[in-house]
Amino acid sequence: MAHSRSDIGWRKTTSVGIMTPKRLIKLWEREKGSSERSNFDTLVQTAADWCKPESNNIERLQAKGQKKDSRRLTDVGIKSRRMFTAGMMSNMFPQGQYWLTARVADKELMFNDAVNKAMQSVTKTFMSAIEESNFYEEVSQSVDDTGWAGTTSCYVEDDKKTKLNFRNHKYKEFYFCNNHRGKMDTYIRDFKLDARQACQEFGDDAPQRCLDSHEAGKDEDFHFIHVIMPRSDVDYASSDKAKKPWASYYVCTEDQEWMKESGFDYMPYSVWGMYRGSNNEKYYWSNAMEVAQTLSMINRMETTRMRSAERVSNPPWLAPNDGATRRISNDEGAIIYWNAANPLSKPEQLNPSDNPMVNDEMIMKKEQEIQDAFFVPLFNPLHNKQNMSATESVERLNLSMQFITPAVNNMVKYGIKPLLETSFEIMRANGHFPELDIPELSEASIEFELTGKAALAARQIELFGTMTALEQTGMMAQVKPEVMDIWNADEFGAFVQEVNAVPVKLQATEDEIKAIREQRAQQMQQQQQMQAAQVASDAYVKTQKAPEEGSGAEELMGQFGG
Known about the structure:
The chain is α+β, with helices and mostly antiparallel strands. The chain has four domains: about 15-180 and about 275-290 and about 375-440 and about 450-475, no CATH class; about 185-260, no CATH class; about 320-365, no CATH class; about 510-560. About 45% of the residues lie in helices and about 15% in strands. The chain contains 17 helices and 16 strands. The protein has helices at about 20-30, 35-50, 75-90, 115-130, 135-150, 195-200, 210-215, 285-290, 290-315, 355-375, 375-380, 390-405, 405-430, 455-475, 490-500, 510-545, 550-560; strands at about 10-15, 15-20, 100-105, 150-160, 165-170, 175-180, 185-195, 220-230, 245-250, 255-265, 270, 275, 285, 315-320, 350, 445-450. Strands 6-7-8-9-10 form a five-stranded antiparallel sheet. A three-stranded antiparallel sheet has the order 5-4-11, covered by helices on one side. A two-stranded antiparallel sheet has the order 1-2. The longest helix is centred in the last third of the chain and has 34 residues, at about 510-545. It is flat. The termini are far apart.
């Protein structure tokens, strides 16, 4: 598509009808100027002031309504945000460890040796690709953004060198729309490129002004939007990207020109966060937003504490206004002159009644509330604890993970799993999983199970409830033993293995279990026969009477040497 085809009458079809550059730009302007977006912009800036200040003005508060001379005097928001990011990453994606497992949706297939080996190979290949990529750097930025901005976005694409390349997009860089079911189905990325970059990206399809600017060596900046939305005229059998289920359009906003049309088999962007807002708000709230007022209060308390400490260390003076007192100073070695002939003119230093220690206790209490909002005590089992054994620390951490389950579930459902599924499809399309080309997996659906501590915490809650129920049932069984018949022991054992992510190779198959039990039953039957024969033999011996000739007793005695 040459840049000369910039006529806005050049139209494309999506699920919302005929699409033109003007219509896409109007969609972007509508989302950018919506009242919901404006309200969240203020919330995000407020959170940024306390937890992620901009480097060009790190001390001052930028949010609307704040005084221009207001300064940030507390760093608890910044420190808590960093601890939150470190805790979430180490418990969800521990580097150097396998924190996910590839498996088929049909659990019975996992007991097939060929399928089991294929899934182990896929897991190893996939984790290796993630380790070699920039996953940890970019996803760490996304997790960090959820702590202060609330709503974040991540994108994955193929890479010739590392197989996968991830890109985190900040809140201010994108907009999105939800469908009638509340799921994100339209994504708009807002970005700038200079003329040189635009020519690299779009080639001859770049706007004429970009080409002219680059040729003249000016390399001015130009504004673009990238829109991805569902397409209605889909041809699933075609390899043409312009007929893929998800339409991809690049538009130059200044010239209202099409730059590039493409498409995807999947939505390449994921938008996610931790807490949904009320009243059907589509933007996610952050930890910092929920305690923004507490952060503001701590800042005011810090100001009060500094003034109080200064009054204690440098008390004010009381001096008559008609005295001859010269310069009053608290500096070391300072001399204060006054008129000794007039005792009433002698200056007097006041004794302030401030108690900075009281302010310290109040600030520490409020700072604890901030740390709680960012899960800092949950990530650190030794937080404010002493003399704890290693076992107690592990148990406390496992229990703590359960309290962040609701928040983690949102991140996994709307962010991590879609990102991993897209990454898997990219690698599969590029032929990185040849082990999947076996008959047993021809129609199988592949899924991923996260096995990090934070991801497993949700299942641990379910296991805890089940174990409690079993314990209480056992107490009832002391009175009525048959009550234990309500439990399916085999299913319970399989559930415990699943919740604790026991490797498949350590689990016995149904055929193996059946063979073991049949062998055990045969052994028990043989033992019972031996015991019955021994009892009968002892009985005949004790009677000291020879059995009748030709009777069964004579035959039995003969077997045992009687």
